[in-house]
Structure formats: structure tokens, C-alpha cells
Design goal:
Blueprint lengths: L22 H15 L11 E2 L2 E8 L2 E9 L1 E3 L14 E3 H21 L6 E7 L5 E10 L3 E7 L10 E2 L69 H4 L2 H6 L15 E2 L4 E2 L21 E2 L12 H11 L3 H4 L9 E8 L4 H19 L8 E6 H5 L7 H6 L7 E2 L3 E5 L2 E7 L2 E2 L22
Parallel strand pairs: 1-15, 8-13, 13-14
Antiparallel strand pairs: 2-3, 2-8, 3-16, 4-5, 6-7, 9-10, 11-12, 16-17, 17-18
Helix pairs in contact: 5-7
């Protein structure tokens, strides 16, 4: 668990989500159960496909429930983008879940406007006469209402770049085969060597080992350097951690070598680019990236970049900012899967922007708590009755990704998304009201 910035956290009394035992496992279990309840439409074919899962959960006191859900892994190329807003360009699970969450916020605002039970209350101020006056069309969250984010995989982009020897997700070695032959991997740099002539620091970096039997991974905020790019100093130095994980079956390189888990997201033009050198020097960390596309390149930013933005601007979007007085932040992020690294997650979501914000003092950075759940430990504990669902939303190298995505939120039925449109819609013409997706720009 990463320490939260106390400047933005609410005062926690008795009966908050922080008092719940095994909170990350409860989040994962609730997410899987909600996914199981949804209709079959849009879900992967059994034993043949899998799909990433992401959810948004709302907690009020010690009550936690799923309010929005998304699955998917596809993204529309730039040639197929639509200016009118009736195509969903980015159908990655994390983004679909967040867009579904926006619809949930709109739904709750409507309830508040109609003076019905809602998570929002009108903003009130004290006038000159001492009376409380409500500001028109402005609302805030009720005290004690906070939101949490869960995803069954690492977000694409910067968060997915880490040394495979530091993988905290699985002790069984369920890891995608490297794109590069083991014989091309460079041996680990010695203590005296440097990653590049531009750096005057030793390449060895001591990474605190994390016991694989512990579900909750703790990383101290102050131990993470947010200025690690353009060189992967934190990737090379997991030697001591790799030695402690002697039970790990997967060895990406020959003995003594290290390789990096790679992302298909491409560095944006005009910025630092990936050197694509062997081993841990393949990627540049900390840079902005666009999502990968087969053939037709995409213009969608990576999930890591979008989630980092949520920690600065909030996740409510520009439109709802006209009605919600304060940014809506996620108080925690929970990640599960066979590929995890809490250090790279912190760097991507918080660390790389925190140093910039500190130096310029121009923006506030929200620091949520971050939980990492090992697939092996998770599958052996609280979700023993949800293994079939767990396997549908967990990476498998013997399965292919499902072509469809699913969107659901409280107050609305689930929808299946294919190529950015509702499944079954006529792709040759603009969709009518009945075939539009709830999360299309036209509806947001």
C-alpha cells in the first residue's frame, strides 16, 4: 500500500473503508461477482478467450459496492475516428469503466436535482445575514462517500515497464514470452558500470524485496525516484529481489541476465523515444505514450497517462466540472494479475508528475493508496467460488483477447461494444438513438 497524501484525504472516523479487513480482496471479489451477474453478451468464449476487467466502486462508511464496470482491450485507429462522437475510440477496460462512471455521476446528479436520494448534496454558503444559501447547479459529494478503482491487469503504457525479475504478480511464472530471443539479452550491469555515458550514477539500484506470499505490497513513497527517465535505473537493480524469488520458474534470459516487461504503447512524437536496446534498456520510462494499433496507428493516450491525469484533474471530466464543485478522485487503486510491479505503478500514476508539480507549484497531485494482488494468492483465498470468472478476466498466454467490450453502470443495462459501436449496430451509417452506446460522446 502506498501512503496517501493527507492534504486531500478526508478525516477518517470509525467505520470507514480503511477499517475493512482485507480491503483489496473485498474489492476484487465484489468486482468479479458483479461481472458474473452480467449477461453473456460481450463476454469471452469459455476456454478460448479472456478480457481485462475494470470497475469503479463507491464506499460510504464500511459499505462498498460496484457502481461502474468495463471490459475490453481494443482501440480505434485514427482513420476510423468520428468527429461527431458516435464512436468510442478507446475501448480498454480502464477507460470503458471510467466512462461508465461518468454516466453514473450524471445519473446521481439527476437524482440530486430532483431532491431524491443521491451521493451529491447542493453546495451551500453562508450569506451576509448568516443564513445558508445554496449555490445554483453546484453539488459536492456527501461526507464519507469515496470511490475506488480496480483492474485485473497492469495499465498499458509506462506502468507496464518493469524488470521481470521484480514481478510481484505470480510465483508460477505465467508471463508472456519475450519478443526477443534470450541470446540477445545483455547481462546485468556491474556496480561500476553505467547505463549510458550521460549518467554519472551507478546502475545498481537496491529494490526492496517483496515476499510473494504477501498479497498487499507496501512501497514507501519517499523511496521512489520520479525522475528515473530516460534510463531504467530501477529496472537493472532488481538482482537481489530476483535472487530472493528463487522459486520463480520463468527466466526471460540466460542465468544472471534480466529483461524488461514491454508495452506496445508508442512514445509520442517530439518526446523521448525508446532506444530498443537489448534487455532492460529496451524502453524509456516516464514518457507519454499512445496505445498500440495493428496497422492503423491510434491517437488515444495510454491508460497509464490517462490514469495519471485523473490524479491531477480528477476523473469527472470537463463537462461535469461545471456542476461538481470539487474534483472527484479515486481514493485507492487495486491491481491484480500475473504481471504486477507496485514501483512502476507508482512511477506511472503519481511519481513522474509529482516531481514536476513540486518544482512548478502549479497543480495539486492526489496520491491514492495503491494495492497489488498476486494472482496466485488471490485465486487461493477469497475468490475460490469465482475461479471461472477469475480465469475469464486474467491474462493467459494460451488464450486470445476477446473482440468485444462490456459497459455497465448502476441504473443502466450492460452494453456490448465492438469496434467502438454497440454490438449489432450498422457500421455504415450513423447510429440511431436505439443503437447508440451510453458512453459515446454524444451521450456524455
Amino acid at each position: 500500500m502506498l501512503p496517501a497524501c493527507m492534504a486531500t484525504s478526508m478525516s477518517q472516523g470509525a467505520g470507514s473503508w480503511r477499517d475493512l479487513p482485507n480491503f483489496p480482496e473485498l474489492v476484487a471479489e465484489a468486482s468479479l461477482r458483479k461481472y458474473k451477474e452480467l449477461p453473456k453478451r460481450g463476454k469471452p468464449k469459455r476456454d478460448e478467450e479472456w478480457t481485462p476487467l475494470a470497475t469503479v466502486l463507491c464506499s460510504e462508511g464500511m459499505n462498498v459496492e460496484v457502481v461502474a464496470l468495463g471490459t475490453g482491450s481494443k482501440c480505434i485507429g485514427q482513420s476510423k475516428m468520428n468527429k461527431e462522437g458516435w464512436i468510442v475510440n478507446d475501448s480498454h477496460a480502464e477507460i470503458v469503466a471510467r466512462r461508465a462512471f461518468l454516466r453514473y455521476l450524471v445519473y446521481q446528479l439527476k437524482l440530486a436535482v430532483q431532491s431524491e436520494s443521491s451521493i451529491f448534496v447542493p453546495v451551500s454558503t453562508n450569506g451576509c445575514d448568516g443564513r445558508s444559501n445554496e449555490l445554483p447547479n453546484m453539488y459536492i459529494l456527501k461526507p464519507g462517500v469515496v470511490f475506488h478503482f480496480f483492474t485485473s491487469q497492469m495499465p498499458c503504457g509506462d506502468a507496464s515497464i518493469f524488470s521481470l525479475s521484480c514481478n510481484e504478480g505470480s510465483i508460477k511464472g505465467n508471463v508472456r514470452k519475450r519478443q526477443q530471443a534470450a541470446s540477445t539479452c545483455e547481462p546485468i550491469a556491474s556496480k561500476r558500470n553505467k547505463i549510458s555515458p550521460d549518467s554519472d550514477q551507478d546502475t545498481e539500484f537496491v529494490h526492496k524485496s517483496v515476499a510473494t506470499s504477501i498479497v498487499l505490497t507496501t512501497v514507501q513513497t519517499e523511496s521512489v525516484c520520479a525522475c528515473e527517465h530516460p534510463h531504467l535505473r530501477d529496472l537493472v537493480a532488481c538482482k537481489s529481489h530476483a535472487d530472493s524469488q528463487s522459486s520463480t520458474e520463468f527466466k526471460p534470459c540466460r542465468d544472471g541476465d534480466l529483461d524488461v516487461h514491454r508495452t506496445g504503447a508508442k512514445c509520442v512524437s517530439g518526446g523521448l523515444q525508446d532506444p530498443k536496446l537489448p534487455g532492460v534498456r529496451y524502453h524509456t520510462v516516464g514518457t507519454l505514450r499512445t496505445k498500440p494499433g495493428r496497422g492503423d496507428p491510434t491517437l488515444s493516450m495510454s491508460c497509464s497517462d490517462k490514469m495519471m491525469r485523473w490524479n491531477v484533474l480528477g476523473c469527472q471530466g470537463a463537462l461535469l466540472a461545471h456542476f461538481i464543485a470539487h474534483p472527484v478522485y479515486f481514493e485507492s487503486f487495486t491491481f491484480s494479475g500475473p504481471l504486477l510491479n507496485s514501483r512502476s505503478i507508482y512511477r506511472a500514476l503519481i511519481g513522474r508528475i509529482k516531481s514536476t508539480a513540486t518544482s512548478t507549484k502549479e497543480c495539486h497531485i492526489h496520491c491514492p493508496e495503491i494495492f497489488c494482488l498476486s494472482s496466485d494468492t488471490l485465486s487461493a483465498t477469497s475468490i475460490s467460488g469465482l475461479m471461472e470468472v477469475f480465469n475469464e478476466v486474467t491474462y493467459s498466454e494460451i488464450k486470445k483477447l476477446a473482440p468485444a467490450a462490456i459497459c455497465w453502470y448502476v441504473g443502466h443495462d450492460s452494453e456490448a461494444i465492438v469496434q467502438g459501436m454497440r454490438q449489432g449496430a450498422n457500421t455504415r451509417r450513423d447510429p440511431c438513438r436505439k443503437t447508440r452506446l451510453a458512453i459515446q460522446c454524444l451521450n456524455l
